[in-house]
Write a structure and sequence with these properties.
Layout (H helix, E strand, L loop, with lengths): L4 H9 L4 E2 L2 H10 L3 E7 L10 H12 L3 E7 L20 H14 L14 E4 L1 H4 L4 H7 L6 H4 L3 H8 L6 H4 L1 H16 L1 E7 L3 H15 L4 E5 L12 E2 L2 E2 L9 H9 L6 H8 L4 H8 L5 H18 L1 H17 L8 E4 L1 H6 L1 E2 H7 L6 H9 L3 E3 L2 E2 L6 E2 L10 E5 L3 E7 L1
Length: 415
């Protein structure tokens, strides 16, 4: 059993996969405030559920009396992390990286408390030091501490080469720069711990060793397990795409629905990882079966949505779901898509509207949904793939309700 609250919480809730020295880190966290960081490259203008385990670790770090640092990869994004990829990332422009950085910053607003206090979170950008590095000094001062032989054994490199996929020299340098980030944060902010997903283990270990070799300082690395669904599918991916954290990329209602649709086998594990519910309460929910578990899924959805979007948004999403599924009404928070009234008067193919509403990813998927009887307009099944939606479909509330199966709905608003 760990003696520090930080390590005990992480262990009990299932966040710990590997740690460079868990006993020493536990002793340090029990004796003093620890500053720790996680890096997030700026590859999109929002983070998604795949990053939520790391965000929750930063939150628990802060809640247990320590200081989190959010490192935005304004510098490393210019290279691209090869971890877990079969091909190089597309290189982004400076303007695109800057825009993405602003969007990602918003992803943390509800999870962490920022400010000037001893445990208030900090946001830093590694472009602040990476952009100023000289190539020759970097090779002499930092590169000399890296063995090519060892670098080739790390998963981010080895798996790409095993699949005979090209790995550019640019990407090969990524792990050196990530290690340098840790060294720099150790010096600038007295940062003692880097955390990340299991695919970052090699990169994190490099940073730990670099700090030891250059500054003779003990720092620590900790990774989380790969989070998958009970089906084996990757966390955070759906048929409709990524489950984004920012409301302008995914509505709070759709976010709530993602958690409400959790598989029975995942409910308890996800409550431990993605909510702050007490462990004894979670154990009680894990013992439930069948229909009783539906209430547990609603609780999971409420708690997870409240953390990300606020309690009001979670309550509104829950009420919209109740109206939609229990009363058959069109809840206020359902996604609303505008359609030109002139186009509706001419008749819009249903397969087009289902795509426009985000209920189907393609025309083929919409046709399959119709053939399977899962596509509905105002609660009535669509019987023909050539069905057009027109003025006669507008309901008393002035809108048209589209349904894909029993759980996914959207409203069409004539304009």
């Amino acid at each position: 059993m760990f003696s520090s609250e930080f390590m005990r919480v992480l262990s009990e809730r299932g966040y710990i996969h590997q740690c460079t020295d868990d006993a020493a880190l536990d002793a340090l966290a029990a004796q003093e405030r620890v500053t720790a960081y996680i890096g997030f490259d700026c590859t999109a203008d929002s983070l998604h559920v795949g990053s939520l385990v790391q965000i929750m670790m930063l939150r628990w770090l802060q809640k247990t009396g320590h200081q989190p640092i959010v490192l935005l990869g304004g510098g490393t994004t210019k290279i691209g992390d090869p971890s877990g990829r079969d091909e190089s990332r597309s290189l982004l422009t400076e303007d695109a990286i800057a825009a993405n950085k602003m969007g990602i910053r918003r992803s943390f607003d509800r999870f962490l408390s920022f400010g000037d206090g001893p445990t208030d979170a900090l946001i830093v950008d590694n472009a602040d030091w990476l952009d100023a590095l000289g190539y020759i000094p970097l090779l002499r001062d930092i590169g000399a501490h890296f063995s090519i032989n060892r670098m080739l054994t790390f998963d981010s490199v080895r798996l790409r080469l095993d699949r005979e996929q090209p790995l550019s020299f640019l990407e090969f340098n990524y792990m050196i720069l990530q290690a340098y980030d840790f060294l720099e944060l150790s010096r600038r902010a007295d940062c003692r711990l880097q955390m990340g997903g299991s695919d970052q283990w090699g990169n994190i270990v490099n940073g730990v060793e670099l700090a030891r070799r250059i500054d003779a300082r003990q720092v620590f690395g900790l990774t989380t397990p790969l989070i998958t669904l009970s089906s084996g599918a990757k966390m955070g991916k759906t048929a409709q795409g990524a489950v984004w954290l920012n409301a302008d990329r995914l509505s709070p209602y759709d976010y709530w629905q993602y958690w409400r649709n959790t598989d029975d086998a995942d409910v308890g594990r996800f409550m431990r990882l993605f909510t702050e519910l007490p462990l004894d309460e979670i154990a009680r929910h894990e013992a439930l079966e069948g229909a009783e578990l539906n209430e547990s899924k609603k609780l999971l959805a409420n708690q997870a949505t409240a953390l990300c979007h606020g309690a009001d948004a979670a309550a509104n999403a829950a009420e919209t779901a109740r109206q939609t599924f229990e009363e058959g009404a069109a809840g206020a928070d359902l996604p609303v898509i505008d359609a030109a009234r002139s186009e509706l008067e001419a008749g819009i193919p249903a397969i087009v509207l289902f795509q426009k509403a985000g209920l189907c990813e393609s025309g083929g998927a919409a046709r399959r949904l119709i053939r399977g009887g899962g596509a509905r307009i105002n609660g009535t099944a669509i019987e023909s793939e050539t069905r057009a939606v027109g003025p006669d479909d507008i309901g008393a509330d002035g809108r048209i309700k589209l349904s894909a199966g029993k759980k996914r709905h959207a409203l069409i608003r004539p304009v």
